[in-house]
UniProtKB/TrEMBL annotation:
CDD domains: PLPDE_III_AR (cd00430). It comes from Propioniciclava sinopodophylli. This is Alanine racemase. HAMAP family: Ala_racemase. It catalyses: L-alanine = D-alanine. The lineage of its organism: Bacteria, Bacillati, Actinomycetota, Actinomycetes, Propionibacteriales. The gene is alr.
Length: 375
């Protein structure tokens, strides 16, 4: 294999991710914990994260969005229970999950019948979790349909392992009333399903917002995602659990040059030096997932000091203003996300500048970026 020589590296801190899960466990008492590892563990690397979670016992279950994500984790030898959080589309997807012991979400009579038929054809028992609509209005059966659908799953020979729903505003104070109504509705649905066919093994509702703000949403298992990676779902969510950043993103200075007052830097000539200065070029750009929205707005750390991005972020390179008296040299380490001395740039800082959420910032870091795993 050709060694990865690219200076721009995203480093996953497995030790921090594990500490975050330990802190989540401490908060939710004896409940089970499903760690969402979809979207390549929110850009942190689903395989190394899942392997660590299994080896340490830090999580009881893994949550994925796609069948390919589940397959990649199973192919890496991870045996932890996996739940595909959305229903499978098509018999091939169902079969791929059933063959690999991946639990499936079911959302309707059709999806229940499909899993039952495919599993019977394979001579296997499929495990399913019935997703109920309580306010997200994305996927899920209507609350009053849940008892009949649960019985239908039983009759189809499925193992009805879970009943679940999802919380769209659990992470803000303004969403408290809505979330509490969802929790109450979900509890009613759980009671109705229990009356119809006995208790499901695992009722689950809480995402990170639920873990952080709504103890009533914890039921038998919680499903945190973003907080596993050390980030709050919203800047206003109370940090009721201590969290450590799951990712550092670094590069190295590739070029240093003097720029005279009045000279412009970069495409579109959007920045003109107000004084004689020194500019560093760093080999990272929107082609790596370092957003162009950071043009003339973002900053980086070099040698423990903070320097502004000047001009537009290019596809492969970005320029920063070192000021007139800089000693920064080619090869110096640059923190795009992370800490140097007393200075820190967080994923939330970048999300704020981009006008987005931290989830998107880490998911944007793409395959061109070299990957390292520590801890
Ligand atoms: C069904 C479901 N459960 C749990 C999560 C985890 O959410 P969060 O990352 O906000 O904790 C997600 C992610 O969006 C999800 O779709």
């Amino acid at each position: 294999m050709v060694p990865m020589l690219y200076a721009t590296t995203a480093t996953t801190r497995l030790d921090h991710i594990r500490a975050n899960l330990d802190a989540i466990r401490a908060r939710v008492g004896g409940r089970l914990v499903l760690a969402a590892v979809k979207a390549d563990a929110y850009g942190h690397g689903a395989v190394p994260v899942s392997r660590m979670l299994e080896a340490t016992g830090a999580a009881d279950c893994l949550g994925v969005a796609t069948v390919d994500e589940a397959i990649a984790i199973r192919d890496a030898g991870v045996r932890l229970p996996i739940l595909k959080l959305s229903h499978a589309l098509g018999d091939d997807e169902v079969a791929a999950c059933v063959e690999r012991d991946v639990d499936l979400a079911v959302v309707s009579a059709e999806t229940i019948d499909q899993v039952g038929r495919v599993a019977a054809g394979l001579g296997r028992t499929a495990s399913v979790h019935l997703k109920v609509e309580t306010g997200m209005r994305r996927i899920g059966c209507q609350p009053d349909a849940a008892p009949d659908l649960a019985r239908r799953a039983d009759a189809a020979g499925l193992r009805l392992r879970g009943l679940f729903s999802h919380l769209p505003v659990s992470d803000t104070e303004g969403g408290r009333e809505f979330t509490e109504a969802q929790v109450a509705l979900f509890a009613d649905v759980l009671d109705a399903v229990t009356a119809a066919r006995g208790r499901v093994e695992i009722a689950h509702l809480a995402n990170s917002g639920g873990v952080l703000m709504h103890p009533g949403s914890w039921f038998d298992m919680v499903r945190p995602g973003i907080m596993v990676y050390g980030l709050l779902p919203d800047p206003t969510t109370p940090a009721t659990v201590p969290l450590l950043p799951g990712l550092e993103w670094t590069t190295r200075v590739s070029f240093v040059k003097d720029v005279a007052a009045g000279e412009s830097v970069g495409y579109g000539r959007t920045w003109v030096a107000p004084r004689d200065t020194t500019i560093a070029t760093i080999p990272v750009g929107y082609g790596d997932g370092y957003s162009r929205l950071l043009s003339n707005r973002g900053r980086v750390l070099i040698g423990g000091a903070s320097y502004p991005i000047v001009g537009r972020v290019c596809m492969d390179q970005t320029m920063v203003d070192l000021g007139p008296d800089s000693t920064v040299a080619t090869g110096d380490e640059v923190a795009l996300v992370g800490r140097q001395g007393d200075e820190e740039i967080t994923v939330q800082d970048i999300a704020d500048l981009m006008g987005t959420i931290p989830y998107e910032v880490t998911c944007l870091i793409n395959a061109r970026v070299a990957r390292a795993v520590v801890g």
